[in-house]
Amino acid sequence: MVVNDTKIRAAAPARARREVSAHLSRGPRQDGLSPIGVQFLQRPVSARIARLRPAPIFLIPTPPLFMSADAVNTALKAQILAEALPYIRRFHDKTIIIKYGGNAMTEPALKAGFARDVVMLKLVGMNPVIVHGGGPQIGDLLKTMGIHSEFRQGMRVTDDKVMNVVEMVLGELNQEIVGLINQHGGKAVGLTGQDGAFIHARKMLLRSETNVGEFVDLGLVGEIDRIDPELIQLLDSRDFIPVIAPIGVGPDGEAYNINADLVAGKLAETLRAEKLVLMTNTVGVLDKNGTLLTGLTATEIDALFADGTISGGMLPKIGSALDAVKNGVKSSHVIDGRVEHALLLEVLTNEGVGTMIRADDTPPRYTAELHSVEREAATWQ
Questions:
Q1: What's the CA gap between 257 and 204, in Å, rounded?
Q2: What percent of the chain has pLDDT over 90?
Q3: What is the pLDDT of residue 284?
Q4: Bridge-partner residues for 256, per DSSP?
Q5: Is the sign of the CA dihedral 251, 253, 259, 262 positive or negative?
Q6: Domain with 118 in it: what CATH number?
Q7: Of all helices (H) and strands (E), which one includes residue 289?
Q8: Is the residue at 209 inside a domain?
Q9: Euclidean distance between CA atoms 54 and 12, whole angstroms
Q10: What pLDDT is stored for residue 371 in this prediction?
Q11: d(CA 343, CA 115)
């Protein structure tokens, strides 16, 4: 007769429990019986029956002395899911524009994780729309082909040869992203602004930083004239996930290379998105001492532009985020795409993983979300 040690411990008084714990600490025997089990079986039958008789009185479950690593991980996962519920409810049926770029587009583990995160957001009722870049990949291919890359104010100068490479690389990247999302259970559709001519563009002319009154011609680099939202709204309504390459179409049908950050920002404004999320290779917006600024207002961003803290390649990125919140988007987020599941951490947790940019007349970082979470948590108590 083999007796379950847990039932013995439940039936034993305090002195016996101490005895059981002492024996259990010695570890299991070779024959599979614990020391206390062997000792129990060596007692006379009458003594064993007497010892077991009170058991029905004490059959109240008691917590285990310890939890295995798997049990701890499972409990933690359950807690994380429970904490995400208020955010899932808050952002249900809301549009989230995600500019996908940086290391998250090059490292296999991060690419797969991003695809899973996007699918999860869609499955819990949000409407993610992906705009992807391809700057590093374009630069690599241009270098391989012996074509020189030139940048002015963070923008790539684009002639006919460069534009051919841009279209080729962005097309391949678009298909890869669509495939990854579909592989993980989503329904992604790849687009460029030329499909249905939904991104109307014109030639971009930048003001010279050195010669007042002069403009810099960037070739086939465009700026957005307007975006027609019907195609994206139709895809969203049918539970598809749009994946957009940033190529616009001019009035005469010519293709323009448009900065992906600008496309993401303008699309967020057009669709009245809840959030604009820009994935980068930095931890967020840094001050001159290299300290992360987790929450900034539009006025504070303007000051960082003015004193030169934000410069170079960050100019179009932060400029796009700033314009978005000034034109109706609830918040913009510059996050570190090198962090695994950075997208979920930013959307479904209070801490976030980067910098949040908000309009001057909106509450500080995550205040509204935090209050919503507190109210939701109260309903569970």
A1: 10
A2: 47
A3: 87
A4: 248
A5: positive
A6: 3.40.1160.10
A7: none
A8: yes
A9: 8
A10: 46
A11: 10
Largest separation between any pair of C-alpha atoms in the chain: 105
Range of the domain at 295: 85-378
Ordered alpha helix ranges (H), the chain: 5-11, 14-24, 35-41, 45-52, 69-90, 108-123, 135-144, 160-183, 230-237, 260-270, 298-306, 314-326, 342-348, 367-378
Residues 101 and 280: beta-carbon distance below 8 Å: yes
Task: Supply 376's token pair.
Answer: 């939701």
Segment 206-231, tens digit of pLDDT: 888 778 878 888 899 999 999 999 99
CA 33 to each of CA 51, 53, 213, 292: distance values in angstroms, whole numbers, following the listed order: 19, 22, 90, 57
Number of H helices, E strands in the chain: 14, 16
Kindly tell me the burial class for residue 310, based on how many C-beta atoms sit within 10 Å of its own C-beta (0-12, 13-18, 19 or more).
buried
Residue type, 47: A
Following CA atoms 89, 93, 94, 98 in sequence, which dihedral angle do they give, to the nearest 10 degrees? 110
Placement of tokens 């104010």 in the chain:
153
CB 193, CB 202: distance < 8 Å: no
Q: How many domains does the chain have?
A: 1
User: For position 142, what pLDDT does the model report?
Assistant: 93
372 lies in a domain? yes
pLDDT band of residue 182 (cuts 50, 70, 90) is very high
Residue 244: the pLDDT is 98
pTM above 0.90, yes or no: no
